[in-house]
Amino acid sequence: MIRSLTTMLVLLLCLSSNAFAEQKEKVGNFDIHYVALSSTFLTPSIAKSYGIKRSSYTGIINIAVLDTSVEGNPAVPVELSGVANNLLDARIDLKFREIREGDAIYYIAEVPYRDDQEINFKIAVKYDKKLNTTLTFKQKFYVE
């Protein structure tokens, strides 16, 4: 089931339009990959297995950090904390869950939204004393 989620997210990233394309930020020897999309892109069985609320009003943020200084660019376990704000400045604390699948490590959080709503994200990313940065991005969500 875990492989199904990873496979689904990878396929979404490969086949995605600009509305929810994967983004990447390079910080030192680390690549921070992130994507925000509607939870309806997950199949009901995958959403259920991870306890994700599958709804036209729930978005998912997925983050993975890769160490580019090591051969094979392995994923690294990081500490994440963050907030999401809409344009009316309603603040939502993001609660990230770590998912490990083989060598892959990624983090997901859910965020509620309304139709045609832009959400601003500010996420602190820490890895030992090697990485300490803030990831900021915005994503517009639509109800299907």
From TrEMBL:
This is DUF4426 domain-containing protein. Gene3D superfamilies: Domain of unknown function DUF4426. Pfam families: DUF4426 (PF14467). The keyword DNA-binding does not apply. It comes from the Bacteria. It comes from Shewanella fidelis. Keywords: Signal. InterPro entries: DUF4426. Residues 1-21 form the signal peptide. Residues 25-144 form the DUF4426 domain. The keyword Signal applies.
